[in-house]
Every structure is written in C-alpha cells, then in structure tokens.
Amino acid sequence: MILPGDSPQAIEQCARHLRGGGLVGLPTETVYGLAANAHDDAAVARIFAAKGRPADHPLIIHVAGVQALGHFAHGVPAYCTALLQAFWPGPLTVVLRRNTGMAMAASGGHGTIALRCPAHPVAQALLAKLADAAAGGACWGSQVWGLAAPSANRFGKVSPTTAQHVAEEFGEAFPVLDGGPCAVGIESTIVDCTHDRPVLLRPGVLTGQALHEACGVALAAPTQAQQPVRAPGTLASHYAPRARVRLLEEQALRDALHTLPPTAAQRVAVWSRWEDAPTAIRQCTMPDVAAEAARQLFAVLRNYDAEGVEEIWVQTVPDSPEWEGVRDRLQRAAATWTHTD
Ligand code: TXA
Ligand code: MG
C-alpha cells in the first residue's frame, strides 16, 4: 500500500506501525529504505526475513540528527564530527564504535554501528513523529529513536528509487511512504570512523576530495581487514538486475552494436552518452553529469528488466572522481556475469 509522504495522517499511521514492530518503506534522498525500529530485535528480524538478507550483515541506522550519536556510539574522532557538520543531514553514513546493548541485531552483532541522518523531509518527519511519541512515554521510554533501514529490495537486487519500485517488489507486505523519486539515486557514501584516519567503505556521490576538504584528513582505502562487513560471496551479485550487464568502452560498444545480427536486436538495450544505435535496439542516453546519471541509474536497469531484455550494454563512465559511485555500482552489476564468463 503506497501512502502519500506529505500527509500527516500517513506519517502518524506509519509511526504507529513502527512502534508496534512493523516495517515501513521509507523514502530517503539516496534510495528507498525498508525501515524498522532499530531497538526492537524482533522487528529487525522481519527486515532480514523480508529481504532474504543474512542476519550477520549489518544495517544502517537512520537518526534525526547528531544529538542521537552519543546514544548509539562512542569514541567519535574530531574528523568525524567535522564530516557530520559538513554533510548531515545528507548521503553520508559513518561507522563508529557501538555502545553496548544498542541496536545489537541491527548491527549484525558487530562491535561497530553505521549511522546516517537522512535529508529527505518525509524521513525527517517520520523520525520527528517517533521522537514526539518517545518523549511522551508512548513507547521505548526516553530512548532515542533509530530506524534500521537497508535499501528496500530483495538481497543482491537493484535498489529502489521510487515508491512504485518498492511496491512492485514487496506488494502489500508493508506500507510504503511515497516521497517521490530519490534526488541522489545511489546509496550513501560509507566512511569508517573507527581508525586514526577515515576509511572509505562504500563510494557514493560525495567525492573523497570533498570529504578530505571537509575534515582536513585524507581518506584511506580499506585494507583487507577493514573491507565493508559483508557476507562472503555476496559482493558479485550486489546491485544486479536480471538482465546481463556488460560494460563497454565507447568504440567497443559501437562496434558491438553495428555487428549485432538483426535477430538479436530485441534482446539488447543500451545506456550510453551518445545515441545512434541501429533503430531496432532500445537505447537511452546516459547524462554526462555524474549526479544526474546516478539519479537515473537504478531506474534504467529496472525499466530494461521490466521490458524483458536479456542484455544491458552500458558505456563505461569517465575516470574522474565524481563518477566513482556510479562506476562502483555498474562494476558490481556487471561483476555477476564476468565471474561466470
Ligand atoms: O543510502 C543508503 O545508505 C541506504 C538508504 C536506505 O539510507 N541504506 C543502505 O543500507 O544502503 P544498507 O543496510 O543496505 O547498507 C549496509 C552496508 C553494509 O553492507 C556495510 O557495508 C555497511 O552498510 N555497514 C552497516 N553497518 C555496519 C557496521 N556496523 N560496520 C561496518 N559497516 C557497516
Ligand atoms: Mg542494499
């Protein structure tokens, strides 16, 4: 059931549902999340079950602002405070040392916790409504609210960027607040703040340089031991549509298109920054601004999947830093296949 995110009644209804241990489809500026009360281990278990995600795979906890930090985590380094000042609310997730007993199941039992303050007004309205109820003693006493919310898609599949995407995947299983299409379009940048220097665990729309400038400390690439916490073997299948994704340099893509037999044209669709494929082939134009391409990426993959194409041929993206997030998602989508080729 899709509910209008700008309706106070819908926010109230979803807040009540979350307090009772239910799940809610939540718009954020990055992608839609599948939210539950982070303090309620049974509710969090429902997220893992709905997604088909392994229970030791930690979730991001969404909070109303920096005031929630001390409730969930400790040992916040100065560079992290500077990052939060610059980018919260927004598409930045920080990993910190978890306070004992806080969001245990949501953090997959790890000693760390991932926190993000979403900028989307609907997510903010829902968190504010939950905080009101907590202050009034309606539930969870004086506890600070946190919403555990991974992307609202089945494990390993493409993240949703509209309320319709969520409803298509989960039907009537839980209410979905409609906050319109996501403005960012790819998941948040994740920075591990449990070391001397910030470590980039997942690229997003914030570039390493922007993060460096904001906090004055250069980011380190993760060592083997600091790799993002992920269940083994799942990396390759992340962000994969059903169709096979092939990443091709411009010339290789043009050559492949012009030698494609007409009988195969129905099976192939293209996403490239130029548009002159043979007319029988589905093609849409990738914007040449990285932020715009990020906004469209998952919807393009989903739409082609819905049209039943077998292969999506995507032009490789420029090598510059602002494309890092899109490059990362495309490489993961293509990796499922390169591993089995
Ligand atoms: O944009 C986003 O971040 C979206 C929206 C809904 O906010 N959420 C999202 O959540 O992508 P999720 O749960 O799919 O992200 C999980 C990733 C894990 O794969 C891991 O890399 C990192 O967040 N993570 C979560 N908790 C962690 C922890 N305690 N320690 C280290 N990494 C953690
Ligand atoms: Mg996800």
From TrEMBL:
It is found in: Cytoplasm. One of its GO terms (biological process) is regulation of translational fidelity. ATP binds at residues 53, 112, 151, 159, 202, 239. It catalyses: L-threonine + hydrogencarbonate + ATP = L-threonylcarbamoyladenylate + diphosphate + H2O. Residues 8-206 form the YrdC-like domain. It holds the Pfam family Sua5_C. Its EC number is 2.7.7.87. PANTHER family: SUA5, THREONYLCARBAMOYL-AMP SYNTHASE. Belongs to the SUA5 family. This is Threonylcarbamoyl-AMP synthase. It comes from Candidatus Symbiobacter mobilis CR.
